[in-house]
Design a protein that fits this description.
Blueprint: H1 2-17, H2 34-43, H3 69-77, E1 83-87, E2 92-95, E3 106-114, E4 124-133, E5 139-143, H4 145-172
Antiparallel strand pairs: 1-2, 2-3, 3-4, 4-5
Helix pairs in contact: 3-4
């Protein structure tokens, strides 16, 4: 008797769990082509790919730091300074202490944090540090970001805008 009741209970539970609605069963919302369904599911975050994107990329399209105009413009602006850290995924560039040799014991260090990939004034947080060392190797480090950081931001943003225009013109052709 128990062996017959348990399967019947399971059948009733399974039938009762079905409320007549199957998720995604509206045929008007589902593309009939399998490739379109796959693409739609991936765009909605409901799928995955094993070998990259569903769409084949054109040659020359890259997904790394050189495709970010703001990042490229920052590196080009600071190309005269030695870099201590350049982390694209972390969104930060830090230079090493730099001195042009004109004044003894004085050097500068710049740090740029990327707050956004968009080319706009609030996308960058730039800090400029000065180090003054006396003859006795007594060094004093001070944050003097107000003047030089604004000038650096303007230069980086203008270069990034130029790079973006070049990228857009290449995409159109």
């Amino acid at each position: 008797m128990k062996t017959r009741i348990i399967p019947l209970l399971l059948i009733f539970l399974l039938i009762g769990a079905c409320n007549g609605k199957v998720p995604g069963a509206d045929a008007r919302k589902i593309p009939p082509n399998a490739k379109d369904r796959i693409k739609k599911n991936i765009e909605e975050g409901r799928g995955f790919t094993l070998m990259g994107s569903v769409e084949k990329k054109k040659s020359g399209e890259f997904d790394f730091a050189s495709s970010n105009e703001l990042w490229r413009a920052s590196l080009d602006t600071l190309d005269f300074m030695p870099l201590a850290l350049a982390n694209y995924s972390g969104g930060i560039i830090v230079t090493d202490w730099y001195s042009d040799g004109s004044s003894d014991g004085e050097s500068v260090k710049i740090s740029i944090r990327f707050l956004s990939n968009e080319i706009r004034a609030d996308a960058l947080n730039i800090k400029v540090f000065y180090k003054n060392c006396s003859i006795e190797s007594n060094c004093k480090i001070s944050d003097k970001s107000e003047n030089l950081s604004g000038e650096l931001a303007r230069k980086i943003l203008s270069k990034a805008a130029i790079y973006e225009k070049e990228t857009q013109s290449k995409k159109k052709t």
